[in-house]
Amino acid sequence: MARFLLLYSLLLFGGQRSSACPEPCSCRGGRVDCSSRSLTSSSMPTSFPAGATELLLHDNLITTLPNGLLDGLSSLHSVSLQGNPWLCDCGVLYLRAWLRRHSADLMAHVGVNCSSPPSLKGRLVAYLTEEEVLDSCQYWYCNLAFASFICLFVFVAAQAALLVALIIFLKRFERLSKEARRTTEEILAVGESPRENEYEHLKDSSI
């Protein structure tokens, strides 16, 4: 019985979350307006009401959509995605596939252009070929590999500099230690000489 109540509560609250208007959007009827709110790919809502019929995401700062974000919105008849700086690398594959499936009935592909990389700037996302997207992925991976190599080189150079500094410090410490030991020995030798002379003088006097 307790398990049944827990399952019922999860389904109930889950249904309420799916129908709630996401922040910071405004909702009225089936219209979900998230436009012109400076949303980014990380700050945009992670879900939308399942019964949404119109979704406005235009004029934001969105560069990519999470996989599956729009798949559960079967009632949509209008979507606006233009006015966003879409990044056409590996992350655009989901958006490209979704636009291709719905471009005829929703006209969602209109104004959805690539902002980067430079080789694809201005191109409609829906009409990108798979080869073009994969090429942009390779370009991105090359940049990542180069950046990783630079970071590794800087790290190794820093470690080498620390090692050299440690060796110099140890050699200097060893030299100072030898000088201190030699100075100590000289001081002790100088201190013992007067005592030996005094002893010899007393010995001669007693004779």
Automatic annotation (TrEMBL):
What start and end residues bound the annotated signal peptide? 1-20
What biological-process terms (Gene Ontology) are attached?
A: blood coagulation; cell adhesion
Q: Name one GO cellular component term.
A: membrane
Where does the LRRCT domain lie?
84-138
Q: Which InterPro entries match?
A: Cys-rich_flank_reg_C, GPIb-IX-V_Complex, LRR_dom_sf, LRRNT
Q: Which residues form a coiled coil?
A: none
Please list the residue ranges annotated as the LRRNT domain.
20-54
Q: Does the keyword Signal apply?
A: yes
The membrane topology noted for this protein in its Swiss-Prot or TrEMBL record is:
Single-pass type I membrane protein
Name the UniProt record assigns to this protein? Glycoprotein Ib platelet subunit beta
What is the species of this protein?
Oryzias latipes
The organism's lineage is:
Eukaryota, Metazoa, Chordata, Craniata, Vertebrata
